[in-house]
Amino acid sequence: MNLDHHESFRHTIDENLARGISADREQSLREHLDTCASCREYLNASNRVIAGLGGFSFEVDPTLNARVLSSLRRPAQPGRRHWALISVAAVVLTMGGSLVDLRFGDVIASVFDIGRMPVRQGLLAFWIVPSLCVLLLFPLLPLLSKAGTHREERTQ
Ligand SMILES: [Zn+2]
Q1: Residue 30 lies in a domain
Q2: Per the confidence metrics, is the pTM higher than 0.85?
């Protein structure tokens, strides 16, 4: 058998994995794979790459396919721990801002030779309010990311 012959069988393998082939062609492919180790190896490699897309997958470790499939089925979680950390950070920032205002407001006011109120207003504007915004936005973020995930799934 020459190289083009194997090439055409490999093309058939690609086609089968992508959208399926007729029973006749599958039969001749199976017969060739029985005798040709290098094309069998090609099939195994292709299966590993696109496992789960369908097509026949003999000669492939079934546990590998199962693992790939289960990882594909599991929806991509943006990580709840991630959101929890953001919320904790927002709470700490908010409380920290208030604490700075309570404890060091007078110090800051004297250092910069300004009144107590401007310091408080500055802290409110640049620290406490943004922190609160993050805190209030936090429950919405998982919903937004969930919507994004659904959109990705639909385009696949
Ligand atoms: Zn071959």
Answers
A1: yes
A2: no
